[in-house]
UniProtKB/TrEMBL annotation:
It is found in: Cytoplasm. Keywords: Cytoplasm, Methyltransferase, rRNA processing, S-adenosyl-L-methionine, Transferase. GO terms for molecular function: rRNA (guanine-N7-)-methyltransferase activity. InterPro entries: rRNA_ssu_MeTfrase_G (IPR003682), SAM-dependent_MTases_sf (IPR029063). The lineage of its organism: Bacteria, Pseudomonadati, Pseudomonadota, Alphaproteobacteria, Hyphomicrobiales. S-adenosyl-L-methionine binds at G66, F71, I119, E120, R135. GO terms for cellular component: cytosol. This is Ribosomal RNA small subunit methyltransferase G. Its main location: cytoplasm.
Amino acid sequence: MELNGLRVSRETQERLQHFAALFQKWARAINLVAPSTLDDLWHRHIADSSQIFQIHPQPTTWVDLGSGGGFPGVITAIFLAELQGGWVHLVESNHKKAAFLRTALRETNARGSVHSIRIEDAYTEVGECGAISARALADLEALIGYSSPWMLGKENCRGFFHKGRDYLREIDKARGRWEFDLLEHKSAVEQKSVILEISNLRRLV
């Protein structure tokens, strides 16, 4: 099996397939993603989320903010299971979604844990990390604000944020408040979308 040109092992493929089946089952009862995207689960959500690990395939400790239906946090945790290293702390304040995330991690033997708390309270509970992810959560300025307890003044922590076609406007807005190094990774799944890699975060105002 391949995702975005990346060869996926049989074990990881089986984990991803089990996650997809769980997701479809739970999505009938709770709103995990927009219903209009359910029929395109593999391309729109799983393949898209897998790009995070493809960009940063190290056994890193991650914090995934606003994990929702598990994108990209559970997908990253599934890939880390193959490395037998790294960990994903999934932060999701909605208790029903958090219950789904715990079930998905447990049944796929993925490397992660769920924190059913507000993002603003997560740093105290989770502690330091090497990477932060978020998808379909907020604009870049807000995401950097959420991530700042982990990233501010820390050279070894990076943020990886999925963004759509309006990402240049979001970058300009964020630079009014923050200074940071930026790498733009073009999406292999969604045309005109990117994954923004943020590092060396400094506060301007």
